[in-house]
Each structure stands twice: as C-alpha cells, then as structure tokens.
Amino acid sequence: MMKISIKILLLYLIISVFSIQAEEVSSNLDKIIPRHEITNQDCMECHGVEGFAVPIGEHGETLKQKLYVNPDDFDDSVHAQITCLECHQDIKQLPHSKEKLKTVDCITCHQNLVRKETTFQGKKIVNITVLATPNAVQAKEFTIDYTNSIHAQTQKNKPNQYNAECKDCHGTHNIFPSTQSRSLAHRLASPEVCGSCHEKALNEYTNSVHGATLKTPWKGDSAVCSDCHSAHKISKAEGLVAHRIITENCGNCHQEALNSYMNSYHGQLAWLGGEKVAKCSDCHYSHNTRKVDDPNDKVHKNHLLTTCRECHKEATASFVQFHPHGNTHDYEKYPELWWVAKIMVGMVIVVLIFFYIHSMLWFYRSWRERQQGYIHHSEHPKPTSTKHYRRFSWGWRLNHWLLVISVMTLVFTGMTAMYADSVWAGYIVQLFGSPEQSAIVHRFAAIGFIIAVVGHVIALFYKLIFNRNQKFAWFGPDSLLPRWKDASDMVAQFRWFFGKGTKPRFDRWTYWEKFDYWAVYWGALVIGLSGLILWFSEFFGQFLPGWVFNIATVAHGIEAFLAVATLFVVHFFNNHFRPGKFPLDTVMFTGSWSLEEFKEERPEEYERLVKTNTLSQYLVKPPSKMVNIISYILGFSFISFGLFLLVLVVIGFFQKGLI
User: Residue ranges of the domains in the chain?
Assistant: First the structure.
C-alpha cells in the first residue's frame, strides 16, 4: 500500500510540473508580439523552458520535436551577440506555432561576412558585419570550402537533404569556440562527431594506433579525423583532392616520410592523379593504421611481399628490398642512395660551374671586342657568294631533329613528374588528359631518343666498315674523338677570354661541340638505362634487388636536370645566343653556311680543304628564301619551347630542389 502511495505521489508531482510549464507557455502565447519588437528574451520565454517541445504529427501523442535552448549555453556561444531573428529570418511574430519555418541558412550568412576597418579618435577599429565573431574572415573561408565539399552535396536518395549540414558538426545554439573542450568542433571531439555518420571508419580508427594513442593522452598527441581529412575541405574519398589533402596532412606529423614519398615514382604520379599507383592508404591502412612493427600491419615483413603484389603481380623476395621512403640524406639507412646522389650532384655542380663561366666569359670578351671596333661576319653586308659550304648532310639533320623533338618531349613530360607538386605540373597533366597518358607520351619519346642515338651509332659503324675506299683517321680533324688540339684550343680560348692571346683557329669540330656530342651518349647511358629499369620494373625486379629502383630514380632525375641545365643554356648560347650567332643559327635546318661564315668559324678546316683542292666537293647552292623562312620558324619555335621548359624546371628547382 505504501509503494502505491509513493507512485501516486510521484505521478502527481510530474503532472504538476508539466502543468506549470504548460501554464508558463500558455501565458506566453496570449500576447502577440510583432517582429520588430521581438527580443531574445521573448524567445527564451518559451524555448528557455526545459523540456519545451512540439508534436511532429497532428496531435500531442505523436513524436515531439525538442525546441529547448539552454540559455546559459547560448550566452556562452559564438552567436551570443546576435539576435534570434538574424538566423530565423522568416519569423514574423510571436507566437509562431502555425508557421512553417525554414531551415536556418548558415551558408549565406557566413559567406556575407565582411571585414571593415574604420578609424575613431586615431585608433583603428575593425567591425565584422552580420556576425560579431573575432574569426569572421576565417569563418567565411571555411564556409566557402564547405560549399565545395562532398558534405554540401545532396544525397542521392534524398535530393533535398545535404550529406552533412553545419549543425551536424557544430551544433545549433551551443556553438562554442573550437578551442573549448565542450565544443563539437573541438579537435578531440571529431572522432565522435564524424563517427555519428561514419560508423565503420570510427570502429577501425578506435582500434588503430591513432585511436589508441588518443585514449592515452599522456603518451603524446595523436591524429584525429580533422587532422587527416581537414574540417571543411572534405571531398570524395577516391578523388585527387582528397588524396592530396590527406597526403599533405600526413606530412604534418610524418614530414620526412612525406618528403621521401613525394620524391618517389609512387608519390610523383599519385600527386598528379594517377589511379594505378600506390598511395598512402594502399600500403598503410587508412583508418585502422598500425605501427610498422605490428605483425598485422600491411608493411610488416611478414606481409610486405603480399602488399607489393597488389600492384606488382610478379614481385619477388628481392623486389621488396625497394625502399618506399628511401632518401639521399640518411647515410645510415640508405648508403647506396647517399653515394649515388653525392657523386651525381657533384658532377652537376662541376659541369654547370665550368660551362656557365665559359659562356659568361665568352659573352664578355665578345662585347669587349665589339667596343674596340671588331665587326663580326654577321654585321658585314650580305655576302655576294652564290655558293655555300655543306656542313651537315640530310642524315645528320634528320637525326638532330629527332633528337631535339624526343628530348624536349622527354623533358616536358618527365620534369612534370619530377616536380609533380610544382604549380605548373597539374596544368600539363590536364593537357595530356591524365598522368598515365603523359607517361605513355614520355615512353614514346624515349623510344625516339633511343632510335636517334642507336641509329647514329649504327650508321657510323656501317660507314666505317663498308666504306673502305676512304681511310678514316680516328684522331684526325673529321673525328669526334677528343685529341690534344682540343685541349690546346680550350686553353687558347680561355687566354682569349682574358685578353691574353688571340682567338684559336678551330678545325671541323670544336672542343665544346665534342662535349655536346659525348654528353648525349653519357645521358643515353644513364637516363636510358635507368629509364628502362623503371619502365620494366617487374622484369628487372626478378633478378635485381629492389634498391636498384631507388638508385635508378635518383640517377634518372639528376641526369635529366643536368641535361636541361646544359642544353637550354650552354648549348643554346654556344650555337645561337653568342655574338655572331644571335638570335639563331639555321645550319641544322639548311645544312650549310655561307663561305664567309665558314672562313671565320672554321679557318683551319677551310684552309685545309683549299690546300687539298677538295673544297668544291662541299659547295652547294644557298638555301632558297622559302627554306630560310621555314628554318627560322622551326628554329625559333624549338628555342622558345626549350626556354619555356627551362623556366618550368627552374621554378620546380627553387620550389623543391634537386634531391
């Protein structure tokens, strides 16, 4: 009997409380308040009553929509200084029980945030219109990011509902500064907030090394959802934007790993949008991230071969010796990479210093001679000679054109990968359609380069073996092999640079032309061999250790950079930009020089041909006007494109460096 009395008493108390609340609300509804008189306090007379709710259906027995607003929470929120009607703009009066109110438009409000600066009594005052928040400008930027995100897109089965609205992540009336632990936008709250929609990801994250560390904060900081995915720049998980954002954000904690990844073929191609290349989540679990020494981790030694075979079907035990995060700065871990990089960078420095100084001294000496009254052949009246000296045959010219086109295409596509994170790389990839298409073009250009080099060697050996009527002097004037005269010419050239002697008399081939010639073979050996190893990685991986691919990547990139820095600077100057040649030497297109130019450029060869009565064998008609026009168009086009490539590489170099 006693228990029944207590229950009746409790029921009476509950009914009394609700009756009092009903009376309070009822009394508030008796008076109609027009919009221009409504204050926050007027709203709180109903919404500030704890338990205040309205039925969703037609009568009170249906589910109810909670409309209670905690006054203390609202007063502490970032919106405390604005009125209710600034958000609920369609309320015309109080009460508004029969009005169908629209959803609050957070986006329009935040996008219209304006930062205004005014001066009052000599002091600068900053006013933020629409919303009084100290981070209004940042809030505006976040809103713009949100509108471009996957969260702002509507659901497929619910076209009128967004994937995630502002209130889902920030709350409604309890929006506190994100620095406060009670805020839904607080960094450590993101797993729970994000997990309300992404339950599977939350479960995986909870069991990961990141989630485990979050449970033990005394061990140090750990990554949460917003650290990897950002807060507002959320895109489709499989998209390029998402991959780039997550990759960059991983680098916030794992900077060394990010740098080494971006220097690898994996990172370069993935950054450009490659679909069939390893990304972070392909080798490491995305949400269920584990330590590398965890037996269940994908890159643990027990599972590494299986992980590699997800992409490289024919991978062997030696193949997995590849260093996915190998770098050239850690001698203890990667000594072979360290040595290769140091030797090749040293070679780059020596070559560029020597030939850049060579070009600058040449320009200075030519300028001094011009000041002293020396007139070059190009400044003389046009020659009246009706004969030209044939310097290059059709075979030479065709080979050179193939070499030029293939090398420039290789640079255009290859440097896009080497400097994948440069501002210009993405535009070039879009030009080709995809990084895979760019890679195909790169390989076709490589085939053209190999044909040009190997074809030239075959032609030379054919001529030497089958053309026995003429004896060939291996170290004679017609040979491109280095000889003592080249050394003496170079010494004399430097003496002339400094005004200590006369300009040397050159024969058919100069010492800088021989350097250019043999540099092609050196480049073909280093770039060609390393390129083939990277191209056919699964084939070479069956009998070569995996670290060879790391070395091939380093050698391929450094040698390509050296080629760009010499071809489009030193070679262009020696053959086109130096006084007397500027702005263009068309001999590689027309195949011939005027006799006046021939006498000045190659006096030793000219006198030798005259002395042996063989000059007439090399005399040809001057090129026609049309041939000259075409030669200039092609020449300027190639040079302009080469300089354009040089600018791109210089931008990439200053942004990223060489290794």
Answer: 16-103, 187-271+277-310, 335-359+392-656
- What does the pLDDT look like over 496-539, one tens digit per residue? 999 999 999 999 999 999 999 999 999 999 999 999 999 999 89
DSSP class of 208: S
Question: Three-class SS of residue 528?
Answer: helix
Phi (first) and psi of residue 473, to 5 degrees: -90, 110
Q: Residue range 185-189: average pLDDT?
A: 86
Q: Which residue has the tokens 């971006």?
A: 262
Residue 224 and residue 374: Cα distance in Å, rounded?
73
Task: Report the CATH fold assignment for 335-359+392-656.
Answer: Fumarate Reductase Cytochrome B subunit (1.20.950)
Report CA-CA distances (Å) from 280 to 245, 251, 257, 285, 315.
12, 11, 10, 8, 19
Write down the number of H helices and E strands in the chain: 30, 9
CA-CA-CA-CA torsion for 364, 367, 371, 376, nearest 10 degrees? 140
Q: Is residue 516 within 8 Å of 571, Cβ to Cβ? A: yes
Angle between helices 394-418 and 435-466 (to 10 degrees): 150
Cα–Cα distance measured from residue 171 to residue 631, given in angstroms and rounded to the nearest whole number: 70
Nearest Cα neighbor of 102 from 118, 116, 91 is: 91
Quick check: 330 and 338 in contact, CB under 8 A? yes
Tokens linked to 109: 């409000």
Are 175 and 182 contacting, i.e. CB atoms less than 8 angstroms apart? no
Long-range CB pairs of 277-286 (<8 Å, 24+ gap) are: 277/311, 278/311, 278/324, 279/243, 279/247, 280/246, 280/247, 280/250, 281/246, 282/310, 282/311, 283/307, 283/324, 285/204, 285/208, 286/204
Q: How far apart are CA 78 and CA 125, in angstroms?
A: 20
pTM beyond 0.90, yes or no: no
Long-range contacts, 84-90 (Cβ 8 Å, 24+):
84/38, 84/40, 84/43, 85/35, 85/38, 86/130
Phi/psi of residue 632, each to 5°?
-70, -40
Q: What digits encode the pLDDT tens for the residues 547-576? A: 999 999 999 999 999 999 999 999 999 999
Q: Is 45 helix (H, G, I), strand (E, B) or coil?
A: helix
Q: Which two tokens stand for residue 488?
A: 């003496």
**Exposed e or buried b for every residue in 320-342, given b needs 16+ CB within 10 A?**
bbbbbbbbbeeeeebebbbebbe
User: Based on C-alpha coordinates, what's the Rg of the chain?
Assistant: 38
> For residue 225, how far is the Cα from the chain centroid?
24
What's the token pair of residue 437?
């298409």
* Backbone phi and psi for residue 17, each to the nearest 5 degrees, phi listed first: -60, -50
Per-residue confidence band for 7, with pLDDT thresholds at 50, 70 and 90 = low
Q: For tokens 């709203």, what's the residue? A: 43
Distances (CA, A) of 355 to 177, 493, 500: 60, 13, 20
